[in-house]
Amino acid sequence: MPPEQLALFAEPLPEGVTILRGFALSQAGAILAEVERIGEAAPFRAMQVPGGGTMSVAMTNCGAAGWVTDLRGYRYSPADPLTGQPWPDMPALIHDLAVRAADAAGFEGFQPDACLINRYEPGARMGLHQDRDEADRSAPIVSVSLGLSATFLFGGLKRSDPQARIALNHGDVVVWGGPARMAYHGIAPLKDGLHPELGRLRLNLTIRKALV
Ligand code: MD6
Ligand code: FE
């Protein structure tokens, strides 16, 4: 069994959410190298939201489909609007890590085809939202956090529901599905700090099944 599957505990959370603390730790360096390579082909960029604002988080994607937003709305696109090229392939390392994490959380047979990569600098935040652009909502989303720690805001099925605050640290993986799949969530403004491997940055990879 690979070492990251020897997690000592899984924290009880709202039904459908599992945090695998440190699950990606042993592969963090390899994931970072892949993200660097992806960023060379499909640069991180601040995307526009339909309301006209610009996101504080810089994004890119890998896989058959990538999540994009512009003045027309949110959607998955097979090509990078910045380059006109297909998104870089999803590295096997990232695909397989996500499948193993989904398995460990009870979602067997996960077939991811999209990976959104978010890059946060201090002060960047992700407003409360639902992930609703995926065609198949029976599939979970696997989220990998690297670099500076963030506070994950985890609400309910209504925007106005109270939010739990959960720390996500370097190497943590969250699997998110079932009854929690449509819950509102976000990331509080990133606190400044200096991570030994990423410096003043947080990266988050969300691996999804976006297409039918
Ligand atoms: C982030 N994550 O951690 C933002 N969405 O930077 C998400 O929005 C998210 O972590 C769906 C499922 C898991 C997530
Ligand atoms: Fe999300």
Supply database-style keywords.
single chain, mainly beta, 4-stranded antiparallel sheet
What would you say about this model in short?
The protein is mainly beta.
Protein described:
The protein has 212 residues and is mainly beta. It has a domain at 3-30 and 92-208: Sandwich (Jelly Rolls), CATH 2.60.120.590. Helices cover 13% and strands 33% of the residues. It is built from two helices and 13 strands, in the order βαββββαββββββββ. The chain has helices spanning 28-41, 92-104; strands spanning 17-20, 45-48, 54-63, 66-70, 73-77, 114-120, 126-129, 141-147, 150-154, 164-168, 173-176, 185-187, 202-208. The strands form three sheets. Strands 1-11-8-13-6-3-2 form a seven-stranded antiparallel sheet, covered by helices on one side. It has a four-stranded antiparallel sheet with strand order 7-12-9-10, with no helix packed on it. Strand 4 (66-70) and strand 5 form a beta hairpin. The longest helix has 14 residues, at 28-41. The model has no long low-confidence stretch (mean pLDDT 94). Bound molecules: N-[(3-hydroxypyridin-2-yl)carbonyl]glycine and fe (iii) ion. N-[(3-hydroxypyridin-2-yl)carbonyl]glycine is lined by residues 118, 126, 131, 141, 143, 174, 176, 185, 187, 204, 206. N-[(3-hydroxypyridin-2-yl)carbonyl]glycine (MD6) binds next to strand 8, strand 11, strand 12 and strand 13.
